[in-house]
Design a protein that fits this description.
Elements lengths: L10 E4 L2 E4 L4 E4 L2 E2 L4 H11 L6 E2 H8 L7 H15 L9 E4 L3 E4 L35 H11 L4 E5 L6 H12 L7 E5 L9 H8 L10 H8 L5 E5 L5 H14 L4 E6 L8 E5 L14 H4 L3 H12 L8 H13 L4 H26 L1 H4 L7 H4 L1 H11 L2 H10 L8 H8 L6 H13 L4 E5 L2 E5 L2 H9 L3 H22 L13 H17 L6 H17 L3 H14 L8 H18 L4 H15 L2 H17 L3 H18 L2 H17 L3 H12 L18 H14 L3 H18 L2 H18 L2 H17 L3 H17 L3 H17 L6 H14 L3 H18 L5 H15 L3 H17 L2 H17 L3 H13 L8 H14 L1
Parallel strand pairs: 8-11, 8-12, 9-10, 10-11
Antiparallel strand pairs: 1-2, 2-3, 3-4, 5-7, 6-7, 13-14
Helix pairs in contact: 1-3, 4-5, 7-8, 7-33, 10-11, 10-12, 11-12, 12-15, 16-18, 16-19, 17-20, 20-21, 20-22, 21-22, 22-23, 22-24, 23-24, 24-25, 25-26, 26-27, 26-28, 27-28, 28-29, 28-30, 29-30, 30-31, 30-32, 31-32, 32-33, 32-34, 33-34, 34-35, 34-36, 35-36, 36-37, 36-38, 37-38, 38-39, 38-40, 39-40, ...
Protein name: Transcriptional regulator
Organism: Rhizobium grahamii CCGE 502
Pfam family, one: Trans_reg_C
């Protein structure tokens, strides 16, 4: 339990109790009070209107807004509330009943700081990115309290109001106030930077660190949020309101614990939404008799005075000054942004002159056409006036800064907009001036300040650009962000999701805008080709595969002979190929990757070659061409060594170890995989591949399988669990899924069905979250094997059939042989020996053609058992004996033990007990561990029966 300062918007105290409305927490002397949800709703309603009679019908409509309930329900929960409060005990009185009418809260209430109860161990959500709330927010305390109460009852609360009223400020303050309720899981998604509604879901997914692995990210997003207790703030939604409404409706339908705060000029108009009209700040009336003290008690006046003082103006407010302030506030209609802009001018012009300027420049706008858009009736007028007060240098800088979409740095501003006679001191001085005039916002991201024009200000400034200016600025903007991608692109693999990635994510908005310009009607395709090529590695690292494919293909189609064979084409072909591999399977993937590799080889750059060889290795593995994958892996390893870079070398070890494992070269595979694991665990700025992961993080899952096959089941289990643990801690879903695949195989081979099922559930959840549908199919197939082994072969066989068909359809063949083995075992139990023999023959032919020889001994063993189920023939003996020899040649003691058990059982059927014991004893003696595993227990049982 910790102590925290109170918040007038959320902490209310009466007697020994402290009620935090936002956290929905009642504490008595610092100790939480157990209180049902309806009783807590009653308490919040009563304390929100102290000393006010609330009728029974009013209370029931508040507590059960969408349900018709009997009055007895109200009495029942009121009794529970009074009991929890100790109402009426030892003279304490909190709630009074007015017979036949309702209830009234009568205890004194204070809002000062009190003891709060928090969970010290609550984990902070790593993607949380809320800016800090203002130290003082004028006139919005009751709004925060009301919004907090609404958010406890409605999944979506939309803060609706005109531009400049302060919707975003209130939303951020509300989210900060409620962040502890969600264990810090509060995320701000600013949609104001998006011009394309189709990017709403991908933008939110990227902010949450979700790889965008398909054309439609919506299923992944909903799967991710399904079990989350999280607060989402959707900011500036009016220009994409239809898309946001559809997304919000889907989220609240799929994720009941998620709460959404929306800021927009219009409501979403969806079920479950509570619309909160955020009014302008209250202004003092036009009353000559009103005192200065009364005028300054109004929120609009308070805001104006505070912002005036903050800008450096010294005010000793007289009665006359107070009335001028009241007049300014009324003229600006209590609009927060307009008040702040006006307040900034007082230092230079004084109160009277500022009011006069308002009359001259804004009066007509305020009384203009009533059917004009709110932005033109308020902020447009304010900006006209503010722009008119700027010196020419500030005007020039403001117009040029409008080329940026969203946030930018001073360095970016200097590189993009500076040209003679604008030098660095002049630019920085103008930026400082614009910040001081509230025309430019400044936010700190760590040690770096970032700047942003408000959307309305940017639109206003863009209108002032000439066509020539805009073209020159757009070209400079595109050139800068190409250099930015080349400089900072290698940082992406080293960054965790959330706040650390936020500045980079914001930069991507400018990359998108530059690409749109470059390939537009008045753009520059050469600049677009260079920019798209530089963006490919970043799009890949961020798993933005749809955008990677879109811009790669757009740039490739715009290329002429001058660009053929260039480094740009190499990047773009690789981007197109791997994006299509993840999004569409094998279609049109290989030609693009092959062309990219051809260019890389021609250029002779080892890192460039490795960047393509990695995806090529993955392509061949995914499509079941293990022989080609092994050849590619050898090249990966050789090229990686040539780079001399630790991360690339680790990736080379992984690719080679992975391919060697499936090819049945277990000893060599172990050496490579252990080398990958022993590499430097720190991420590198020089990624060895477009695949977007480090080799060290993937090697453990395959090594665990390898260890089991080599007859080290306990070491295999340890490695599997350790790898899964490390992958989970790293929060890299692709790595975790691969680790889980390796671990589940080990658990199944050990006979630990409980652990297998637990991790299958985890794999299905995580893979489904990121649209990794082949992994889900493999996991479902593993579930089929568990069903077979638990006595339901019919359900298991049916399940595995479907999964294998889906995997064939998506050309994902890495695990189809393993699933075929499970399917054939189930068919044998069902008596479908004929189909089992057909499938095992086909599987043997497949591995001979494709090269996943690690399963050869097991296929021979299964074939022998199928034949043995018909009759104990010599052919059955030859198959099982062949499995033993193949296992020994491969060094696969795991398979050898199983085949030896079957051969011993066959000898026992012939009455050759001594021969059976002689077969088993040597192999059992070679196992120094794993004596509690299913196979070794079976071996001991057969050996004991043979010795009897």
């Amino acid at each position: 339990m910790t102590r925290a300062g109170g918040d007038a918007a959320g902490d209310l105290s009466f007697g020994p109790f402290c009620l935090n409305v936002g956290q929905r927490l009642l504490a008595k002397e610092g100790v939480p009070v157990e209180l049902g949800a309806r009783a807590l709703d009653l308490l919040i309603a009563l304390v929100s209107a102290p000393n006010t009679l609330l009728s029974k019908s009013d209370l029931m409509s508040r507590i059960w807004p969408d349900v018709v309930v009997e009055e007895g329900n109200l009495r029942f929960h009121m009794t529970g509330l009074r009991k929890a409060l100790g109402d009426g005990q030892d003279g304490a009185r909190y709630i009074t009943t007015i017979p036949g009418r309702g209830y009234c809260f009568v205890a004194p209430i204070t809002g000062s700081a009190h003891v709060l109860v928090t969970d010290d161990g609550a984990a902070k959500f790593r993607h949380a990115n809320l800016p800090n709330r203002l130290e003082r927010m004028v006139g919005r305390e009751s709004d925060i309290l009301d919004l907090s109460e609404r958010l406890s009852r409605f999944p979506v609360v939309s803060i609706v109001g005109s531009g400049g009223v302060g919707k975003t400020t209130v939303a951020i303050a509300l989210a900060n106030h409620l962040a502890t309720t969600f264990d810090g899981a509060a995320v701000l998604a600013d949609f104001g930077t998006l011009s394309d509604p189709s990017l709403v879901s991908p933008a939110l997914a990227s902010m949450l660190g979700i790889p965008v692995g398909s054309d439609d990210v919506r299923p992944s997003l909903l799967a991710y949020l399904r079990d989350k207790r999280i607060l989402l703030v959707f900011d500036t939604c009016e220009h994409v309101v239809d898309t946001v409404a559809d997304l919000a409706a889907s989220i609240i339908d799929a994720a009941p614990q998620v709460r959404i705060v929306v800021t927009s000029r219009e409501a979403l108009r969806i079920e479950g939404e509570s619309i909160y009209k955020l009014d302008t700040l209250a202004c003092a009336p036009d009353d000559p008799e009103i005192t200065a003290e009364t005028i300054l008690s109004y929120p609009a006046s308070q805001l104006f005075v505070e912002r005036t003082a903050a800008s450096g103006a010294a005010l000793a407010i007289t009665d006359e000054d107070a009335h001028i302030i009241a007049a300014i506030c009324r003229k600006l209609d209590g609009m927060a942004l307009a008040l702040e802009l006006a307040a900034r001018r007082v230092e230079a012009y004084g109160l009277s002159q500022t009011a006069a300027l308002l009359d001259q420049h804004l009066a007509l706008a305020w009384v203009g056409s009533r059917n004009a858009p709110p932005r033109q009736k308020t902020l447009q007028a304010t900006l006209d006036w503010s722009y008119g007060l700027l010196p020419e240098l500030d005007r020039t800088v403001l117009r040029r800064l409008a080329i940026f979409v969203g946030d930018f740095t001073l360095d970016a501003a200097w590189e993009v907009i500076a040209k003679p006679p604008l030098d660095r001191p002049a630019l920085f001085g103008a930026v400082d001036s614009l910040v001081a005039k509230s025309l430019l916002s400044a936010n700190s991201f760590g040690a770096m300040m970032r700047y942003r024009l408000l959307d309305t200000t940017r639109a206003y400034a863009l209108h002032g650009q000439t066509e020539d200016d805009r073209a020159e600025l757009a070209a400079s903007h595109a050139s800068y962000y190409r250099r930015w991608l080349e400089q900072f692109g290698p940082d992406w693999p080293t960054l965790s999701s959330g706040p650390e990635r936020l500045p980079y994510f914001l930069g991507i908005n400018n990359v998108r805008a530059a690409l749109e310009w470059a390939f537009g009607d008045n753009g520059n395709t050469d600049a677009g080709i260079s920019l798209a090529a530089a963006a490919v590695p970043v799009f890949q690292a961020m798993s933005l595969f749809p955008e990677c494919q879109r811009w790669s293909e757009r740039a490739l189609s715009a290329m002429d002979d001058h660009h053929r064979g260039s480094r740009e084409e190499m990047h773009l072909q690789a981007g197109r190929g791997i994006a299509r591999m993840y999004l569409h399977g094998g279609r049109d993937t290989l030609p693009a990757l092959t062309r990219s590799l051809e260019i890389a080889e021609g250029r002779g750059d080892a890192v460039d070659q490795l960047k393509v060889l990695g995806p090529l290795n993955m392509f061949h593995l995914r499509t079941g061409d293990f022989k080609s994958a092994l050849q590619c892996a050898f090249r990966c390893s050789s090229v990686a060594e040539a780079t001399g870079e630790a991360s690339a070398i680790s990736l080379g070890h992984f690719f080679l170890g992975n391919s060697l494992h499936f090819s049945g070269e277990l000893s060599r595979a172990r050496v490579e995989l252990e080398a990958a694991l022993s590499s430097d665990p720190r991420p590198s700025r020089v990624p060895g591949s477009y695949v977007g992961f480090q080799g060290r993080g993937l090697a453990g899952g395959i090594l665990a399988r390898n260890l089991w096959l080599q007859g080290l089941p306990d070491q295999a289990e340890f490695r599997a669990r350790q790898t899964i643990k490390e992958a989970a801690e790293a929060d890299h879903s692709l790595t975790l899924c691969i680790a889980l695949l390796g671990g589940i195989a080990v658990f199944l081979w050990r006979g630990d069905l409980e652990s297998a099922q637990e991790h299958i559930d985890w794999l299905i959840s995580r893979a489904g979250l990121h649209s990794l549908s082949p992994y889900v199919s493999v996991a479902r197939g593993f579930e089929g094997e568990i069903a077979i082994r638990r006595g339901d072969p019919s359900a298991g066989v049916s399940n595995i059939r479907r999964c294998i068909e889906r995997l064939h359809g998506s050309t994902y063949e890495v695990f189809t042989t393993m699933l075929e083995l499970s399917l054939i075992k189930g068919l044998a139990l069902l008596g479908e020996v004929g189909e089992g023999l057909e499938r095992v023959e086909k599987a043997i032919q497949s591995i001979e053609a494709n090269g996943d020889f690690c399963y050869s001994p097991e296929l021979l063993r299964i074939k022998g058992n199928l034949l043995r189920s018909i009759s104990p023939s010599e052919e059955a003996r030859r198959c099982i004996t062949g499995a033993i020899h193949a296992s020994r040649k491969m060094g696969a003691r795991g398979w050898e033990l199983r085949a030896s058990c079957d051969l011993a059982a066959l000898e026992t059927e012939y009455g050759k007990k001594e021969e059976a014991a002689a077969i088993l004893q040597p192999i059992v003696d070679r196992f120094d561990e794993g004596h509690n595993t299913e196979d070794l227990k079976a071996a001991e049982d057969i050996k004991m029966r043979a010795e009897c």
